[in-house]
Amino acid sequence: MNLPSPQIFMLPAGINVKKINDILKDENITLAGNTCEPEEGTILDNFDAAVYNSGALLIQAESGLIRLCWSGDLTVQAAPESEWRFARDLPQGPVRDLLLNLSALRAFMPAGQVTIIRDTLSVLDDEQKTCCRVESITLSRGKKVWSWLMTRPMRGYSDSHALICGVLEKMEKAGLPADVLKLRISDYTSKPDIHLSENAPARTTLCTIVQSFLQVTRRNEPGLIDDIDTEFLHQWRVSLRKVRSVLTLFKGVVATETLDQLKQDFRDIMQDTNMMRDRDVYLLSRDDYFALVPPHAHPGLELLFELLQQDRDEAFGKVTAMLTSKAYKKQIKSIQKLFENPQDLPKGPKADAPSKVFAADLVLKRYKKVCKLAGTITEKTPDETIHELRIQCKKLRYLIESAQPLFDDKQVKSLLKTLKGLQDHLGSFNDQSVQQATLAQCLDRYPGTGPNAKALAESIGALTAMLYRKQLEERRMIIENLSQLYNPETQGAFKALFDLKRIAANPNPETGEQDKNQVDSYGDKNL
Q1: Does the pTM of the predicted model rise above 0.90?
Q2: In Å, what is the CA distance from 41 to each residue of 190, 236, 387?
Q3: Domain annotation for the chain: domains and CATH numbers
């Protein structure tokens, strides 16, 4: 006989053994618990609520670090001996591995204090033999209680397992731990749901998109000022880049004078953060860089990273001064207010164009531009052209993501996934280029004499050589993956989703042959 599968239950009112046994009194089985000492614990999560959104809780207690998945299993490792903020700071163990895969760059912060009782209850038959076990964790905050239970069936006792499951199922009520225990789980997302209407004027759609991204910007400011983790700056910058790109790409929607002023405003705001982000990227890759060069170059690398950390500290001071200044607060609030009411945004000649038709036309034109540029790239193409392709691909992605609510979500996600592989290589290629330039700057800044000068120069030389090799490899991968952009399948997918005129003219093609001919007419390199 097959062993029944373990079952999971959540009891918002906690475990009432007496009540369960009253229900089981005619079934010749009883549930027996143990006298367990409660302990204090802390619920941890990050600003993205990565743990909670994955369907789990992360609990730190003296007895261990616990990841409790309310629809899955329980994972435990020894409690860390010292304070920690990032998954990489934890000692080796299964919880650390899960957290690294889930959220390697974000800091974990308290979301609430709880009292924990862990127990393994036993289901006993009339001869006091154990016929099933029930693993439980009960969390409480004041009078609020939430329990998680997982049955551990035993071979030969499937009836007893079914009985206890039947009782627990009747007692179970809908209620996730954050709601029941009133935990402070962040509701932040870097990709907010944006609700758009396909027939709304383009100016209205633009305002909705910009407002959503600016809210992401503002949500990241406190964590950036407090320097909680590097992702606050990264997501602050990405949200503003999206705003700037969408404003530029929505050509003709905003009056030219207003658009020029906005582009300058965003340029001014973001340029103060460039150095800090560049140094963050370097410092986050510290272990990788040490692994790239031989051990004899490590002392020089230590000096290099001291310089980079000094740069970063200085840049952080400038960024916080900017973000806390009256000028910035006034400027960002003024920009937000401009997009609150579409009627207040000075209009361009295409301000009233229907949103879906307008966005579809923009995506197709941008895609054709990207394909045309990609079609010119060979092994001899200058690096600058590859950097330009990266920028154009990023603009295409921002545009598609912004317009996503107007189109079939599944098809859009499929297209974005298709583009992602190439974009990853383009991004890595750019990183290697920027980092080599940074190394050259560090070498120029450091005195050419003294006991450390030679060690620094040798380490920078060794690291530059390795980065150049990696850049060449990324360049090779880019050329190999270019066809992802303009192969017939991708072209067909873009046309099927965004070529609204073709769709209207031929909404139900009888065969795929006509579509293939239309794709071929796109031309890989003659768009």
Answers
A1: no
A2: 29, 32, 49
A3: 8-181 (2.40.320), 199-340 (1.40.20.10), 354-527 (1.40.20.10)
